[in-house]
Amino acid sequence: MRSVRIGVDTGGTFTDVVAVDEQTGEITTTKTPSTPANPADGFMEGVRKVLRKAAGAEDADGAADVGMDAVSAVVHGTTVATNQLLEDRIADLGFVTTEGFEFILEIARQSVPDGYGNSYFWVKPPRIVPVHRIRTVGGRLDHTGAEVRPFDEEQAVAAARWFRDRGVTAIGVCFLHSYANPAHELRMREVLEREHPDAVVSISCDVLREYREYERSVTTLVDAAVKPTMRRYIANLAERLEAASRAQDAAGPAYEGGSGGRAYRESVAGAEPSAPDGTPDVARAARGSGMPFSVMKSNGGVLSAAEVVHQPITTVLSGPAAGALGAALIAATAGHPSVITLDGGGTSTDVAVVVDGEPSLTTEGSIGRYPCKIPMIDIVTVGAGGGSVAWISPEGTPKVGPRSAGADPGPLCYGRGGTEVTVTDAHVFLGRVPPHLLGGEIPLDADAAREGIEALAGKIGLSPERTAAGILEISAFNQSNAIRQITVKRGLDVRDFPMVAFGGSGPLLVCRLIDILGLPSVIVPPDPGNVSAFGLLTVDVKNDYVRTFVTRDLSLETAGEIFGDLEGQAAAALDREGFATGAHVYARSADLRYYGQAYEVRVPAPSGPLDEDWRAEVLDRFHTEHHKLYGYGYRDDPRHGVEWVNLRVSGIGPITRPAIGRRPHGDPSPEPVASRDVFYDEWGAAPIHHRPGLAAGATITGPAVIEEYGSTLPLHPGFTATVDEFGNLEVRRG
């Protein structure tokens, strides 16, 4: 019986789906329009569509559930939590903190965002929780976790009842120094469960057991804010997957180690009850489902849906993280272990750096205006996607983005009521993309694009061709600036890295990016629009644990106890995911700084026993990494001591990754399938190549256009694209 794993990545414009046959390794890809009003609709349609395609069904009638019984696991990349934060859809959120610290959110940090040269012109945005919905509770711990004043149970009860009486059902709790001792926060949660059982509660010692009270408070509150939304969404998907699978049990283990339906049902049984705002009981929704269902996390790992509803903040960069990991595997297989990844979608472009096969991680990220100090792949996002709107500033200069036309109504050429020119319209007008998307499923209105471009050209006094080319040039520079942020600002030379371009709009501007940035080459994988969905199937189960321990004289015994506790938490989580003890992998790391510095540098820490050799190795890695990042270090200067700040453990459950097969060699100079007028520097007939017909070794010379289902590569004059043995197009100048 066939066993298929499915990855579903929901984007702003399209939902991308990949299915991998676990017996044959065959990969099937497809796309379907996203459904912003209810992302679950596009999710389910994508699952049905990829199963029909994998089964060879040409006619959708009566074949909606073909092959559902063969699905062994579903992995999902979602933007639900991200969109809620970006759109500031946060309401009725409560906050409990230490007595005397009720204005921690007002004080925040002294830094002023880029773009405000004078702080007098910057007005702090509204706090995530207004001061009138903040309650304080007596009790105090010092920085070592020792109790200075006992927890005030009476005030805690009063706070819980205050929220209950006002219908505030999402509550974050952050007490001073709870990273060192969680006792007071745990007692506050017990009070809330007893006095206000309908509340959804997040406590900081669970979300982020790390010092810096402001960031820890906001991270905890963000987690509480998105919990109800994520629970509704995950429960809805679990119910619909169960209905689609006709109550069948899981076809088999989703991961090495035996994670299957049993582990999923048992772990989801601990989900909190439904809230009065309509939040479903996730346990009830999923208890009957035998299909393992996992969600991508920002840290480059996945977690079962039953577990992720308890830590929804970890999903805020779900889709982009999967794209970076999928691109890293594709590039490494083709012999490029260190690359820049560029994921171009309809709304935005996400860029990341992969060094020696591993994307860079950070804990200094933010979503919108909210700092989120959770481990996440270091991704820079810029509003430069296919749907980015071209507009004229008050000074009369043309601009592109960051506002997007999205999927509905979308660009002018979609014919759905869009009224503004977008990047996609410019490509259509210049003939660089075909007059349809998804192999003809979505016809494009080229006349509407032309009329929009001509109207905009009249306003700025340029020809329509120069206007459209200018829109694309601005978009290319927007993307290049994002790439510089992730490379030059981190001490990396962009010219040392090939780039992997994917996503529906990712390959469209690669020739200009090669010239602007001096890139050695750009790799465009097969089915580039589905790389993020493919990446979902390449990802291990992963949970991160941290403990702040600030000291200049690290006690190896204490460090061993902390690492042991963190690894114990990681082991318990992997057990719940169904991994056998022998399959567990633990990755240690530590955050260090020179004494007197305000921020740390993270370095990997060796496994094994903690001894003086272990300490020396970590310190050596710190000095090396600090010098690489900042250009200086104090390795041999005893006046500058090193301070240990955080100890970390990642618990990893490895999976079997899909294999990327080699392609047979064929005609090195293939004939085009058609030609059409395309504008590069001037109008001219350009050969059109169908990418599935290109064998390994084939070389295309620009000007040309290479088309495939879901994406297009316009090849400018002076550039070549060569198909490697894994089916990637390698684009170079000359």
UniProtKB/TrEMBL annotation:
<dbReference type="Pfam" id="PF05378">
    <property type="entry name" value="Hydant_A_N"/>
</dbReference>
<dbReference type="Pfam" id="PF01968">
    <property type="entry name" value="Hydantoinase_A"/>
</dbReference>
<dbReference type="InterPro" id="IPR008040">
    <property type="entry name" value="Hydant_A_N"/>
</dbReference>
<dbReference type="InterPro" id="IPR043129">
    <property type="entry name" value="ATPase_NBD"/>
</dbReference>
<feature type="domain" description="Hydantoinase/oxoprolinase N-terminal">
    <location>
        <begin position="5"/>
        <end position="195"/>
    </location>
</feature>
<feature type="domain" description="Hydantoinase A/oxoprolinase">
    <location>
        <begin position="287"/>
        <end position="544"/>
    </location>
</feature>
<dbReference type="InterPro" id="IPR002821">
    <property type="entry name" value="Hydantoinase_A"/>
</dbReference>
<protein>
    <submittedName>
        <fullName>Hydantoinase/oxoprolinase family protein</fullName>
    </submittedName>
</protein>
<feature type="region of interest" description="Disordered">
    <location>
        <begin position="251"/>
        <end position="286"/>
    </location>
</feature>
<dbReference type="InterPro" id="IPR045079">
    <property type="entry name" value="Oxoprolinase-like"/>
</dbReference>
<feature type="domain" description="Acetophenone carboxylase-like C-terminal">
    <location>
        <begin position="560"/>
        <end position="729"/>
    </location>
</feature>
<dbReference type="InterPro" id="IPR049517">
    <property type="entry name" value="ACX-like_C"/>
</dbReference>
<dbReference type="Pfam" id="PF19278">
    <property type="entry name" value="Hydant_A_C"/>
</dbReference>
